[in-house]
Structures are given as C-alpha cells and as structure tokens.
Amino acid sequence: MIKVSEVAIVFTALYFLCGCGIPEPTEISPGLYSIYKRDTAGIFGNAHKMQNDVVTKANSFAASRGRIAAPASSSFTPMGSGPGQFATFDYRFYALTPSEYSDFQKRVQEIQRKRKRDWDSLTPAQRFAYEQREMELSQGAQALALTQQSINQAASAQFQNTLLQQQQINAYQQRTRAMNEPVNVNLKGNINHTFDPVYTPPLRTPFSGY
Questions:
Q1: Distance in angstroms (rounded) separating the CA atoms of residues 186 and 183
Q2: Cα–Cα 20 to 30 A to 160, which of 6, 37, 106, 112?
Q3: Contact 86, 50 (CB under 8 A)
Q4: CB count, 10 Å around CB of 155?
Q5: Those residues with Cβ within 8 angstroms of residue 186's Cβ, 6 or more apart along the chain or in another chain
Q6: Does 180 score more than 80 pLDDT?
Q7: What sign has the CA pseudo-torsion 158, 163, 164, 165?
Q8: How confident is the model at residue 185 (pLDDT cuts 50, 70, 90)?
Q9: Is 80 exposed, middle or buried (0-12, 13-18, 19+ CB in 10 A)?
Q10: Is the pTM of this model over 0.85?
C-alpha cells in the first residue's frame, strides 16, 4: 500500500527535476554564446544555485571545444509575485582560445584599474550620486524585465483564449451541420441521428368507437 507521504515525496522530487536542466548554449554572434535559464521551481528554487549551474555549463561547453569561457554580460530577473513569474538568468560569454583569453584578462584588468582611478578622483558627494544612479538603473532594469514578462504572459493567455473560442466555434459549426443531416436508421434499428429540422406533428386518428 503506497502511503500519501511517499507519493508527495515522489511528486516533490519530480517538481525539482523539472527546473534543474540547463539548456545548451546558443551562438548569438561569432564566438559569443548565450544561456537563458528559467527557474520553474518557483518558491522551491534556488536563484544562486541556478546562476552557478549556468556558469558551470558555460565553462564546460567552452572546455569541450578546447576554449575558455570569458563572461560578456549577465542579466538576472528575480521571481515575481504573480503566477508564472519565475526567476530567469541570461548569461552571455565568449569562447576564447588560451591566447585570446590572456589578452581578454589584460583588457579587463586595465579597465578595472581605470575605474579605480576614476573612483578615487571623485568627491564623497559624487560617489553617493553615482551609487544612487546605479541603484536606480538596476531597479529600473528589474522592473522593465518584470513588465515584459507580464506582457508575454498576457499575450499567451489571450492567444489561449482566442484558440479556445475558435475551438468552440468549430464545435458549434460541426453540431449545426450534423443537426441538418437527415435521419439515418440502419438495419438493426439503431438511430444514428434523430433530429428532424422540420417538425411535423404526429397524425392522430379520432376514436371512432366500437
């Protein structure tokens, strides 16, 4: 006898497995790849683990081709409060040869040194204004991503509703055509269709007595 708790454990395990698969990288331009992951586990998901798994997938993908994955950009959208608003992570990376990766690291280090020099030259008020602007841009990007996700979900729901309405119209038309077909009685006496579009009252013979 299978217990309810055992069934719940099985369904929970399957639920977690549905959101664990990391898709294969997609080449969006020569040498530049993207991995887009949607965490369908919802409140049971782990955003930090999802991002780590995506980066690990990118590293393994590049290594399988004798290359090194160099991060280009990333975009994370947290889970929303509405139904179907799952967390997403879009990770873009370059698949570079060892020599290309060495040049890439030098450029990154030079950019970081320049940013540090620029930051050190700012006054405290300028640094505060810069941090505020970065926060506003980050919040604006997250809000825009959630809005786009809501629009996509609304468009999908509208499409499903239109499809359902068309199916109902098709079913109604099929019933209408069937109702206009003549009565068909086979040799066994089974009536396949009993609707007569033209109603004829039954003939009644007056009682003539004995």
A1: 10
A2: 37
A3: no
A4: 10
A5: 192
A6: no
A7: positive
A8: very low
A9: middle
A10: no
Pairing of strands 191-193, 184-185: antiparallel
| Alpha-helical regions (H) of 20-123 | 47-63, 98-120
Q: Within 10 Å of residue 177's Cβ, how many Cβ atoms?
A: 9
Amino acid letter, 118: D
The residue length of the chain stands at 210
Band of pLDDT at residue 201, cut at 50, 70 and 90? low
Alpha carbons 54 and 93: distance in angstroms, whole number: 11
Neighbour tally for 64: CB within 10 Å? 9
Identify the residue whose tokens are 């786009």: 148
In the block, tokens 């009993």 appear at 194
Please give the Cα distance from 204 to 192 (Å, whole number): 27
Tell the residue number behind the tokens 């060892």, with chain if given.
Answer: 98
